[in-house]
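Weekly modeling sync, notes
Attendees: S.R. (lead), two postdocs, one rotation student

Agenda item 3: backlog of single-chain predictions. S.R. asked that every request posted to the team notebook include the full sequence so nobody has to chase files. The rotation student volunteered to paste the first one in as an example of the format we agreed on. Action items at the bottom.

Example entry:
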Amino acid sequence: MEIEKENLIYLVNFVNECCAVMDDDYVGDWITTPNSDLNMEIPLDLIKDQVGRDKLYRLLYFIDIGEADL
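Predicted structure, as returned to the notebook:
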């Protein structure tokens, strides 16, 4: 997916949040791989709108508390 300029800050913030809950080396693979907890959507594709970002941050929360798997 191509990230529009206006979404770059959302991407940077999201990657930082990912790094807080998973190994830094894994983040790139995780954000570019279809995820079963996101109905097989690719996390990177969800950055483009607020609904998608809300889904991503909710999933990161559940990963952080151990309720969802990477």
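Discussion: group reviewed the output briefly. The CA atoms of residues 18 and 24 lie 8 Å apart.
Action items: rotation student to repeat for the remaining queue; S.R. to check formatting next week.
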